[in-house]
């Protein structure tokens, strides 16, 4: 039905790597895949296989779950969008103080995949939207910190030089040209 690739971490994996929960749900236990370093797996490419006939009104939705947390939606693929690279935005781990006995396995992170009605899927690009929002906030924080270093205070107002935006943008561009990894620091 589907396959996945974890960029720079795996070869293509098919549905047999996942545990099928029922007709429409599959789970990949990250303990078996990467162990406790699950949060270092930042991206996943999911794709529909050529012979799959997913109805046009259905989506294959992807969720992530940190140990002890609820599943969080990351994105989806559809017949109209048969593949996607999704950012895996792992939630904070939940209650780690749960009592474990010899019969219970330790909590682990999971990736869930489910067939859902397309109308119930929030947004196909929710992770991309969050990444853009995060990047914008980091750039704004960089500008604010730059402005603070040149400003004076007049009561409750910050007073900055008129050319502060030009100076910041020029410095920002020069740094990005010198260090290609500089801009990567602004993304998740």
TrEMBL record:
Which GO cellular component term is one of those annotated? nucleus
A single Gene Ontology molecular function, please?
nuclear import signal receptor activity
Residue ranges constituting the Hikeshi-like N-terminal domain according to the UniProt record = 18-121
Q: Which residues cross the membrane?
A: none
Mind telling me which InterPro entries this protein's record contains?
Hikeshi-like_C, Hikeshi-like_N, OPI10
One GO BP annotation is: protein import into nucleus
What Pfam family is a match, any one? Answer: Hikeshi-like_N
Q: Which residues form the Hikeshi-like C-terminal domain?
A: 134-184
- PANTHER family registered for this protein in UniProt: HIKESHI FAMILY MEMBER (PTHR12925), PROTEIN HIKESHI (PTHR12925:SF0)
Report the sequence similarity comment from the record. Answer: Belongs to the OPI10 family.
What protein name applies here? Hikeshi-like domain-containing protein
- Name the source organism: Chenopodium quinoa (Quinoa)
Q: What is the organism lineage in this UniProt record?
A: Eukaryota, Viridiplantae, Streptophyta, Embryophyta, Tracheophyta
């Amino acid at each position: 039905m589907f396959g996945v690739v974890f960029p720079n971490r795996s070869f293509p994996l098919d549905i047999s790597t996942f545990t099928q929960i029922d007709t429409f749900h599959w789970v990949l236990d990250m303990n078996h895949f990467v162990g406790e370093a699950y949060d270092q797996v930042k991206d996943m490419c999911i794709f529909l296989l050529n012979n799959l006939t997913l109805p046009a009104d259905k989506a294959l939705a992807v969720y992530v779950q940190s140990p002890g947390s609820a599943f969080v939606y990351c994105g989806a693929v559809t017949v109209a969008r048969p593949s996607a690279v999704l950012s895996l935005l792992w939630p904070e781990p939940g209650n780690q103080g749960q009592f474990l006995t010899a019969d219970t396995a330790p909590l682990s992170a999971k990736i869930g995949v489910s067939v859902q009605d397309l109308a119930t899927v929030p947004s196909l690009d929710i992770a991309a939207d969050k990444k853009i929002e995060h990047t914008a906030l980091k750039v704004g924080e960089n500008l604010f910190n730059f402005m603070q270093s040149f400003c004076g205070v007049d009561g409750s107002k910050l007073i900055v030089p008129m050319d502060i935006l030009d100076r910041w943008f020029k410095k920002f561009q020069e740094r990005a040209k010198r260090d290609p990894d500089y801009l990567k620091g602004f993304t998740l």
